[in-house]
Structures are given as C-alpha cells and as structure tokens.
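Note to self: the last two entries modelled the partners one at a time, which told us nothing about the interface. This time every component goes in together.
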Amino acid sequence: MTVDLSQFIPSFLEESFEGLELMESSLLNLEAGDNETIHSIFRAAHSIKGGAGTFGFDVVTEFTHLVETLLDEMRDGRREVSPKDIEILLTSVDCMRILIEAARDEADYDKEKIAQTTAQLSETLANKDTSDNVNTEQVPQNSNNLIDKSGSNNLSIYKIHFVPEHNLAKTGNDPLFLFNALADLGELTIVANTSELPALTDIDPQELYLSWDISLKTSASVEDIHEVFEWVEDECLLEITQTTIQSQAEPEQTPDLEQTQASTTAENKEIIAVQPAITQEPPAVVAEETATNKPKGKAKAKAEVSSIRVGVDKVDNLINLVGELVITQSMLSELGSDFQMDKIERLTNGLEQLLQNTKELQESVMRIRMLPISFAFNRFPRLVHDLANKTGKEIELIIKGEQTELDKTVMEQIGDPLVHLVRNAVDHGIEQAEVRVANGKPEKGTISLDAYHQGGNIVIKISDDGGGINREKVFAKAVEKGIVEPNSTLTDAQVFDLLFEPGFSTADQVTDISGRGVGMDVVKRNIQSLGGRIQVESTVGKGSCFKVNLPLTLAILDGQLVKVGTETYIIPLISIVESLQVDNDLINKVSGDMTLYRLRDENVPILPVYQLFGLKSEFTKIDNALLVVVEADGQKVGLMVDHLLAQQQVVIKSLKDNYQQVIGISGATILGDGSVAMILDIPGMIQIALTYAQHKQQHRSAASHYEIGAPC
Amino acid sequence: MDIQELAGNIPVEGEYSLEGIDFITSGEQYLTFLLANEQYAVDILCVEEIRSWEQPTKIPNAPSYIKGVINMRGIIVPIVDLRLKFNVGKASYHDTTVVIVLTYHREESSRTIGFVVDAVSDVLNVETQDIQSSPAFGGCVQPQYIEGLINVGKNVVTLLNVEHLQEVEKHAFNANF
Amino acid sequence: MANVLVVDDSNSIRDMVSFTLKSAGYQTVEAKDGQEGLSKAQSGSFDLVISDVNMPIMDGITLCSELRKLSNFKFTPILMLTTESSTDMKMRGKAAGATGWLVKPFNPDKLLATIKRVVR
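The predicted structure of the combined assembly is written out below.
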C-alpha cells in the first residue's frame, strides 16, 4: 500500500518552525547548568531531525544531526555550555531555518553559510574531549532495509534454531508473530521442541518453555532473518545456518551504511529487475517497497495557507455559548408560540439573555482570531542580542505583557514596524558604554517592550534609557530638509512627529542597522493603515518612548455615531481627539473659504461633512455647530456634524466586495435597526477637503481671469 | 412516415412532470422587466431576489444613478437605478418600484448588485438561436450592456449583459462639487 | 482489528504514523506525551503501543516502564520510535520493558512491515 507522505509535510514544517523558535529563545536564555532548557532544545532539534528524515529532507537531517550531537553532549554534561557554543548553535538554528525553507520552497539556499556552519560545528565537536561518543550514532539513511539490498537473489535454505528465554513474553514479544514475519520472507517449516516443558503443575503461564527448529527457504539474506529477531536477540539462543541451493552470477555487494542515497536507490532498482526470476516468492513486499521508495516530499506549502491554531478551551467555550444560545432561542420560540401580554416580563428577560449570549458569542469568536503578542515579540531577544554584538553595546531587553492578545492580521502587519523601532532604539537610543558611564548611567542599556490593553485598543511601548531625542537637532534637520520653516514654533510632540516625515534621518552617520532615513515614515504609514497611531515621548539624557496604539482587531471598531442630514456616519473612536461645540469667537476665516478654529494653541481647519459629501443639511452654519476634532497624519481637523449620537462597537464590512473603494469611507456597517452606515476614513476626508479647496481655488482664478478678460 | 406514430412520441404536458416540460423548452429562461414601458431582460440564473424599494444609505460623492447601499442579510449591496443609468423614463419611487438583485459569478469571486426598475413583468423561455444581435443604432443604452434582442410577439425585448451591467465606473469623488 | 496507541510529541510524525496504521486497517488513539499516553492507556485496551523516546513531561522510556506496571499492559508489545540506533538506547528501552524499536526515519511501508512482528 502507498501512503502519500506529502500531506503531513505542512504540519511538519509548522512544528519545525515552532521548534526553531523555541530553540532560539531557549538558547538566548540559556544559563550554565540549566538542564531542563538544554533538554527542551535537544528535543526540538531531535524532532526536526526525525521528521526531516521521514519526509525526505535529507540535507536538514544531516545538518541537524550535528546540532543534535552537540546538544547531546551538553545534555549529558559531557560538555560545558560556553558562549561560543551558543553563538554557533544560534547560527545553526538560522541554517536549519534556511534549509527547511529551501526544502519547502524547493529553492536554492546559501550553501556557503551552511558549509561554514557545518565546518564550525564539526570543529567544535572534534575539539572537545568527547571523541569517544561523537560518532557512535550513524545518521540513518532513509533506506528500506526490509529486503536484502546486497543484490543477491540466491535462494537459500536457512536452518534456524531458536530457544527463547523463559521470560521473553514479558517484553511483549510473541514467537508466533516472529514466525509470521519469517513466513513473509519465504517458505517456512517449523518444528517445536517441547522437551523443556515442565510438569503441568510447575508451569508458570507467563513463561515460555518451548524452543523451535525452523527451516526457511528464501531469497532473503541472513541479515534479514537477524532483523526479524532484532528485538529478541538478547533474550534467546539463536543459531542461523545457511545452505545456498541456487545461485546466479551476481556480484555480491556488502550493505554499507555509509553509502549515498543515490546508490541505495540504484540498488533498489536492481531488486525490481531481478524480481521476476524468483517467481514463487511473495513479490508484494518488494513491489510496495519500491513504489514508495524514498518519499521525496514535495512541499506544496509554498502558497501560504492562512490558518490559525486555536486552543481547545477557546473552541469549547464557543460550543458552550452556542449551547446557551440554543436554549435561549428555544425558550423564546416557546414563549412566542403562545404569547399573552402577561408574559411580557419573561419576554423582556429572554431578550436580555439573548443580548448577553450574542455579546459573549461575539467576543468569543473574536477571541479565536486573537493570539498573544509573544508571537510578534519572540524575535526580539535574538534581534537585540545580535544587534548588541554588532554595535558593541551592552543591552538588556525587558519584555512585558507578552500574553496580551491581538488579532492575527494586525499581528502579522505590526511585526516589521516593531522591528524597525527596536533597531532604532539599539542604534540611536542606547549610547556606547563609555558614554553611559560618563553620564552616570549603568553600563548596560535597557530596552523594554511593553504591551497592554487600553479600552478597545492595544498599546505597545518601545522604550529605551538611552540619550533621548535632541529636539533642536531634529528641528534643525527638518529646516535643513525644508520640511519646516526656520521661524515656525512647534510643540515637542510636533517636533518629534517630524521624525516620521519621509526622508528624515538624524543619525550622525548611517550604519547598516538603521539611519538611512527610510523607514520611520513607512512605520507610521503601516501603523496608520491598521487604524492605529504612534506617539513619541523623549527626554534628552533619559531616553525615548515610542507608543503604538492599535485597534485589537480589524473586524470590529469602536465608533462614534454622528448624524449629517439624513445619514448616519461612524467616526472611529481611535482618531477622535475631542468633540466640542463651536465658540463663535474662536472662528477665523482665512484665505477666503478656509475656516479655522482656534483649539488652544492650534488652528484646526473646519471640514463641513455635508459639503464634502454633497448632502443636504439643515445645519450649514458654523456658528454653534458641533465639531468632532479628529487626527490623522499628524493633522487635526474638525468635522462639522449635525448631531452626536451614541458610541458603539460596529462590525466592519467591506464596500469593495460588491462595489469599490470610496474615498473618505473605510467601510460600512449594519446598525441595530438593520440599516447601513458608512464608516469615515479620516485621511480620505482630508484628501477630499484638499481637492475641494483646490477645485474652488481654480474656479476662482478662472473666474477672475474671465473678469479681467471681459472688457476686451 | 406515419405522422400519428411520431405525434405519439411527443410528450404531452403533465405526462412527464417538470422534466418533460424542460425537455420541450430546452432554451434559457430570462426575467423581463419594465423601464419606462420598454421591455428588458436578464438571465434568470443571475437573479438573487426581487425586493421592494427601500431608501438606501447614500454613498458619498457617488454618481446619481448609484442610489446607495442596502443591507441584504448582512451583505452590503449597492443599488443602481437602471432608469438613471440608461437615462430612460423618470426615476420615481413608489409602491410598485422594485429592486432586482443580480449576482454574477466570476472565476473566484462574485458580485451582487441591486437594480431599480419600474416593474417586473414575466419569465421568458428563449432558444439561444432566437436571440438576435442588436443593430448598432445609438440608443439610450450603451451597446456594451446589450447582449441581444428577443422578439416576443410584436414587441422587442432588450437582453442585458449582467457582467457589464455590474461594472462600476470609478467615480471621481469631486463629481458633486 | 488491532487497536494501537501512538505517542509522539511531533504532530506530523504522530499524524503520519496514525494515518498509516489507519489506512492499513488498524485503529489508533493518539497522545502527545508520555503522561497523556499513560492516562489514555489506562482508560482503554490496546494491542500495541508505539511511542517516541524524547518527549516533554514524560519521556518514552518512563512511559514504557509505567505501562509494564499495569496488569493489562504486561504483555502488550511496546515499540519505541527513536532516531538513536545506539545500543545504549536500545538497552535502556529493553530494561524498561520495551518490545522493540523503530529507527527513524522510517517510511509507512517499513512501519507496517515491522509491526507485523508483534501484532496481527
């Protein structure tokens, strides 16, 4: 029979990558004498090796074998765990990842790096006083040893004398099955010897007293017969004598464990070729053997399958909730089938219960998409470790709140921006040790990653105790780059926001870690595209803190419902700064049509939503109007609306499915009454406003042009 | 040739149940509807449902023929007024105004859009060969929307192409300024 | 048909072994470590146990000796899955009461052919 191994490959790959992650994080935390950690690292390597062998990723097997041997020595206490070894093992983990990825994608890989690391590993292994045990274990090749591969097709008769020890059955072995296995090899004749059998009263039913003389006519080799007895050889007397009866001129080859895969395959082919000659032998086994010979797993996992692993507890919880929902439903339908007004209280209760059930169900379903942020955080210990080595700085990384949960999609997209921020913290934030000491700080710098929930959002803080951001330097640079006017007055927050301008970099010199001036703008854009925002706080000499605020999920949003004309719109709460009623004294008209509102120190442009969306509204006067001040791209604007309604969570539905992207609208949702409401996209609204203003300006200049031209 | 014998082989209505009827009318079925007293038709297999007119939620700065979106069992469905799109008749909304919701399946995706029409009239059985190509005379309806013409008695029914009908033009968002 | 308990911490290997056995008509019960294997063993009857050696929580060798202490596992064949073909590992297995061992990597056919030595 044939089993298609390739179906198990995706799951093997998934657990291999998990294993590599575990190895990496454990290696980074490994302290001398921590045996349990070494054990778990060893187990991970061991599983990868085993799986890789089974699924035909031989390069992975071979490489991992070296890693495993090294780990084995550490595990057994034959080797001290040195920092150098850990570095080599970390590099090896990278290599394993490269190899597994290459095997998955059937792609090429960095052979030089592998060769280099292999050499390093071998050298490390050879260097130690452990020469006794390094090579006791062969890398088992993926070969099928069942049938003799020596190429001989001699038909032989074997005489087998088999005397098991009395307690053979205690290890679960049963001679009967051994004989069955022998029968699969050829013609079998068995004679039992009962001479050892004690008197009936003396018999222990758990012991074996028989011995057997077996005659086997087969093409199999003596090794094959020994293999059948492999598990009992130590618990029996076994004599095998061979009499060849029929021979063909076939050069005898000795099975060699070291032989390459290619020659093994070639030999198997030989077996097929000679098979027809031995017609009375059971050919089935050989045929099967060759059919699945060397299962070369074709990794179909290339195209990323989007799946999540969900804890059973989450699913169970969901099932419970659905159960409750069913109960509530049946209660309500029973109530409805024979309803009288005196049952109104029960109905109200039932509906309340339904509301509760639905809410819980919704939360649970959302929770299924949630993963602990450790998935995004776990790469940082290694990253900081490597970067610290590279920059020669001493850095400690503190991670807090790694169990904070976050939507999978958000998680996938926040990884790169976070890496960028952490790199920056290492490169620009933390000073060199001498500088730190001179400034009275501990030699070792600290970077901390902190995640926590706040309202419906997750906050991720990346802070360092480094030199902080020099406000003047940033400002000067921005002036130099022409981003701001030299005489403009900006708040600290505004100055730090300049860091996110495209092409901005304050690093004195460009390093290969960061400082190329690309990136921070991308970081900000990525965060914004997730509906989040980023803020910077910094004190010179004390350090900086980048605070990323993200919605927990992209499927649900906390919104402020507003009314404009007949339409209801939803403004994402995360972008709302404040809502206020216009104080007429603070309105300033500038350059004709632009209306600004003085919000403390800032002048905020007023955008009448009815105008931007071309709606009819009774509230067209700015006097005493309602303003919702929102922020996007560091720009605050005041959206003029008719009424403020409730705040509620809404489920985001795409407009693109059946229609298209609409500027100024990020999606739609269905309100409690079944009607559709649009969700406002603040950057889009600002874009509309700008276009609108340009449009008007063009109109005006065109008009004035006409006036000038009129007299002609 | 014995005509009696041949006639005996032709299935009689009722004798063969629904399948028998299908056997007789092997052509396609089309839903016909009215726009300003003109007859139009669409492939009935595309018809998701027919619903009465309700005021949709407006899409900001959309062309006037796009009335907005409605909630159809949790799906956001845009509503296009075909009378405005084709510029025929008057776009008035009263009790008999209906929305035909059409779904067109492409390879991997499908798109569902509702179309406002004056009234739904009938289901037509038409053999494929009876669909004539439309003469290239300029009418209100742009030629890409027309699949062909069907003669029904004295009248002509315009068969519309659902795939093209569902294409939404990118609208400039300052259309209303 | 024979009922087999498959114990391995690696999903892919466990799935592969289990799938192979099932497609050959065996029934299987899976466990992801020695501890779970032991508790599943106690709550059912099995004709064969196939277990990995290196596992978290409880390793295969411990599982094996624990199983031998149970009256209905006294004679049940227990095969160890190992990548280590060293005699040391085999002796440790034997000492714990293992029936035999299967050296990884192995393919499905080899697995099926080999277990015939201990189970119908």
